């Protein structure tokens, strides 16, 4: 069977599965729409959490970052996995014991303030939309390459699929759909990794293959060969880092605390029956997540070796088929600077205006390749980092069914996170703004209708941002994680562990952290990108790591203001004490 036919078959079958699950698990109440009824099994919820956690950034981008950034790319592995541990140990069980529906629910109730709830909703919506725009763009790219449709139609198809199971099934439908998506994406990620590890080292286990010798008879190890090959081409050593220690520390910590503050992951722990189940759910999710995250490093290294071997010093007329396939989408390109017809892959930009390394790998206006003017270096090949995982099976000449599997896996990763984010946005509008703030007398039927309408509107906005991405989409990681670290995480953390923290302190802290982090990132990423160099950064901290400073400012301002204002009421003391007592809680409170 032809590869293209297999791709249609695999993707079509996975979509049919997701839609079938959505019909089977249709939400009939607000409790089922928001928290899947609060009765999800911890193992099932752990698998759904892993799918929610591992977005297109994890599946598509992370190994690509590691492939080209080498040691510097390890901050993403450390930050994202460390953030999950932080969330699982410090926040998840306590939030579940609180027993409500959303993150703004917790902040609004804990800080006895509608203003605090609204500030939390603003933070949450901004974080979620910046994230979801990148997910929908990823969906469009996968469709564009593998299903031979324009990116616009790829995004529209993705919107239709997410609309069906997110709006119809709510959290109940999303939970069981994400279980299926996790199975698809992890299988799609691991199978090519096994093949590549065996081809390059003779060891089929990628985690072991990374430390093994290359099976070419040279007797050198994978990382040693990678260092030698890249140095010959003018790059730095793969195992050496270029970032300062303070910047590595801050980026890692910002990713950790930002991850722990991401609302679409936190809300997953409201879906289990009791607090002890939240702990078990977190443990299972960590196991499921570790399968992919421990494989990303080897996949990145193998991808870079394969890329150099198949592209460098190759006649363009004899370029492998995978190169021309991706070239048609402007995700890889070649310009013959010396007129010899041979592709020269070296250090430096191949095209003037081609984007410098970013997490998403896109240009300032959302384009993948900005123009065709040559630059003054020997490099003739432009490659988008995001293609490496998707192109790996083709680069390694793996069977067609593996290529089809990776296409289905990439879509599963993007759609699973997009659905979780859409639910967070819709529940914030219907539950936190309408039910809990502006229209408290709304009926449950009306609230459920509002939630579905809000989800529909969010899908339309997210789709538009995926089709016509504004400049800041290239920086979604810096925005989303930095803002989550500087705004929501301190408020949640102090809400659990500090009885003295009051509404005035929490609001002042969130506004300070949100504003300072936004202005710093916006200055270097939007207003003055030419000034985005280490000598201009505050304390040598890049925009990707500035969320740590925003977090410190949040804590400092919140504590100072709380000390100068009235203590929380006695009932809030009792609430905090009840949350922190290490006993299991019963079913989630209804409304």
Summarize the structure in short.
The protein is an all-alpha fold and 591 residues long.
Could you characterize what this model shows?
This protein has 591 residues and is mainly alpha-helical. The chain has 22 helices and four strands. Mean pLDDT is 78; it is low at 353-373, 471-475 and 584-591.
List the helices and strands and how they pair.
Blueprint: H1 3-24, H2 30-35, H3 42-53, H4 56-69, H5 74-98, H6 103-110, H7 114-146, H8 151-201, H9 206-209, H10 222-232, H11 245-260, H12 263-266, H13 275-311, E1 314-315, H14 321-327, E2 332-334, E3 342-343, E4 381-383, H15 387-395, H16 400-438, H17 444-467, H18 476-486, H19 488-497, H20 503-527, H21 547-564, H22 570-580
Antiparallel strand pairs: 1-3, 2-4
Helix pairs in contact: 1-8, 1-16, 3-8, 3-13, 4-13, 4-15, 4-16, 5-11, 5-13, 5-22, 6-7, 7-8, 7-16, 7-17, 7-18, 7-20, 8-13, 8-16, 8-17, 10-13, 11-18, 13-15, 14-15, 15-16, 16-17, 18-20, 18-21, 19-20, 20-21
């Amino acid at each position: 069977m032809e590869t293209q036919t297999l791709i249609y078959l695999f993707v079509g079958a996975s979509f049919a599965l997701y839609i079938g699950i959505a019909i089977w698990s249709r939400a009939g109440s607000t409790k089922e729409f928001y928290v899947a009824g609060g009765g999800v099994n911890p193992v099932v919820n752990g698998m759904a959490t892993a799918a929610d956690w591992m977005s297109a950034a994890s599946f598509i981008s992370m190994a690509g970052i590691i492939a080209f950034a080498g040691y510097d790319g390890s901050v993403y592995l450390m930050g994202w996995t460390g953030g999950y541990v932080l969330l699982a140990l410090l926040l998840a069980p306590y939030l579940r014991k609180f027993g409500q529906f959303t993150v703004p629910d917790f902040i609004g109730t804990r800080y006895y303030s509608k203003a605090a709830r609204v500030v939390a909703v603003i933070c949450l919506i901004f974080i979620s939309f910046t994230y979801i725009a990148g997910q929908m763009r990823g969906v469009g790219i996968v469709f564009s390459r593998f299903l031979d449709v324009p990116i616009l139609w790829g995004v529209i198809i993705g919107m239709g699929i997410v609309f069906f199971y997110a709006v119809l099934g709510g959290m109940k439908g999303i939970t069981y759909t994400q279980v299926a998506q996790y199975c698809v994406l992890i299988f799609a990620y691991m199978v090519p990794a096994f093949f590549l590890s065996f081809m390059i080292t003779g060891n089929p286990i990628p985690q072991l293959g990374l430390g093994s010798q290359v099976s070419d008879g040279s007797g050198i190890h994978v990382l040693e060969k990678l260092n030698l090959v890249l140095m010959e081409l003018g790059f730095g050593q793969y195992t050496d880092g270029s970032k300062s220690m303070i910047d590595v520390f801050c980026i890692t910590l910002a990713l950790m605390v930002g991850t722990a503050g991401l609302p679409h992951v936190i809300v997953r722990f409201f879906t289990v029956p009791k607090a002890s189940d939240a702990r078990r759910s977190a443990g299972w999710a960590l196991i499921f997540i570790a399968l992919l995250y421990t494989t990303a490093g080897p996949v990145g290294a193998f991808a870079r070796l394969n890329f150099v071997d198949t592209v460098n010093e190759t006649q363009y007329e004899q370029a492998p088929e995978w190169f021309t396939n991706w070239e048609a989408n402007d995700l890889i390109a070649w310009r013959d600077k010396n007129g010899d017809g041979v592709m020269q892959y070296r250090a430096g930009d191949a095209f003037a205006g081609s984007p410098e390394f970013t997490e998403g790998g896109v240009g300032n206006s959302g384009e993948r390749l900005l123009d065709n003017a040559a630059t003054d270096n020997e490099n003739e090949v432009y490659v988008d980092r995001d293609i490496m995982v998707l192109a790996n099976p083709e680069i390694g000449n793996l069977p067609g069914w593996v290529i089809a599997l990776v296409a289905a896996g990439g879509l599963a990763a993007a759609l699973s996170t997009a659905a979780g984010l859409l639910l967070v946005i819709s529940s914030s509008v219907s539950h936190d703004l309408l039910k809990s703030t502006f229209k408290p007398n709304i009926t449950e039927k009306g609230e459920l209708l509002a939630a579905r309408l809000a989800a529909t509107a969010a899908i339309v906005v997210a789709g538009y941002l995926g089709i016509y991405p504004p400049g800041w989409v290239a920086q979604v990681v810096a925005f989303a994680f930095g803002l989550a670290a500087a705004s929501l995480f301190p408020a949640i953390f102090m809400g659990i562990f500090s009885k003295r923290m009051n509404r005035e302190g929490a609001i002042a802290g969130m506004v300070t952290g949100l504003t300072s982090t936004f202005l710093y990132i916006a200055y270097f990423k939007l207003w003055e990108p030419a000034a985005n160099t280490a000598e201009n950064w505050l304390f040598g901290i890049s925009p990707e790591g500035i969320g740590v400073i925003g977090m410190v400012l949040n804590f400092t301002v919140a504590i100072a203001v709380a000390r100068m204002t009235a203590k929380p009421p006695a009932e809030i003391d009792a609430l905090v004490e009840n949350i922190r007592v290490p006993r299991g809680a019963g079913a989630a409170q209804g409304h």
